[in-house]
Structure formats: structure tokens, C-alpha cells
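Quick bug: Probable plastid-lipid-associated protein 10, chloroplastic isoform X1 output formatted oddly.
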Amino acid sequence: MSSTSMTAARDVGNELESQKYELLKIIQDTQRGLVTTADQRSIIEEAMVVVESFDAGKEIDLNKLDGTWRLQYTSASDVVILFESAARLPFFQVGQIFQKFECKSGSRGGLVRNVIKWSVPRLLEENEGATLIVSARFSCVSARNIYLKFEEIGLQNINISEDLQAVIAPAILPRSFLSLQILQFIRSFKAQVAVTSPERRSVGGLYYLSYLDNNMLLGRAVGGGVFVFTRAQALTF
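Here's what came back:
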């Protein structure tokens, strides 16, 4: 590559990083999409389109997609309603939301888990009290579109608050075998509910990955709603 080409590529890279930073700056005060006006949503849409233009037409790189992504912003009504419920209801909190892709098998698809951290104040630990996981299989149906086939909804990683632990096993008394068993059962509890069955048609939908690099993922749900994710540390279950 000539020095002129290298300079041009560096300039493009710098401009891209600048536009990504601008997008993140615009969304930082929206509480992940809960607090926005029509004008703000329009500005965010314009900023997303600018970033997406740097990646237009490229095929999905599953090696880049693989991993954990933290939600920074969305306009999808089924997610925003969670934030609205947490804002209205004093007994419900929504913590971090992630998408975890597993797609290094070499095939044109893989597994994606939508991970929602939530809590009930005084009963569970703040923001990290429990984990809801919605699992889906996905397949690439075009250069940028993936088709999601939802399979299972699960609840796990229940972390009860110190107040509730004190009720189950008072600190002033020796913990009995029964109270220890109760605490261990709660901590290790897992529940899974299948979304599909032989009698029921599977639930699915198209998801357009409009931009992808090593640290940012932009998506658009076909039928409404945009998503802005940034790379996060790996999640374990």
C-alpha cells in the first residue's frame, strides 16, 4: 500500500472513530432510550446513518460478531417498556442488558442470548438480583440480515439481598442445615421455558446488522426499533 493510500485509510479511520464518538455522546443522556424527544430520536437516527455508511454493503463478519455486547440505546418498544416500568414501579429495577453471540462454528449462524439483569429492591441485590435470558438460534439470510428463531426463556443467577438472608437465617443465630439449604437452593435455582413445541409454531424475526466492528454493533429490528451496542466483557452462565 502506498503512503498516499495509507494516509487516506488513516483519515477515514479517524473520521469513523469521530462519528462513533459523536453517536455515543448523543445517546449518553437518554437512559438507554427511556428519555428522548422526537427531535432527539431524529438526531440519533442521523448519527447512526453516518456511522452505518462506513460499513455499507459489507458482509457480516461472524468473528467480529462473536462475543458479548452491552446495550447503550434502543428505540424498540418491547425494550423501552421495561425501562418505563422500572421508572414507574418502585419494586422493579432493570440493570444492564446484553446480547451474547456464539458464532465461531464456521457455519453461517449460531446462538444469541438476550441477557437482562433485573432486581426487586430489598428482596434481591440491587440491579443484579436475577438474570433473565432469552435464547435464539440465528442464521444469516443475506449479507446483513440474520433470522432469529427463539427457543427458550430462562431465569437464573438469583442473588437475594442481605435483608432477605437475615430473615431466612438470622445473623444472631447459628445457621441451621435447613436455612443453609434454602439459601443454596435460591442461589442455584434455574428455570427454563421452551418457546417452541411440536404443537406450537416457532417465534422468529429478522434482525438487520447495520454496522459492525470490533467495539460497536448497530442493529435494526425489522418492523421497528434500533439498537446501539458496545463491546463488553465476556458473560458466563
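Actually, after a second look the formatting is fine. The chain has one domain: 57-231. Closing.
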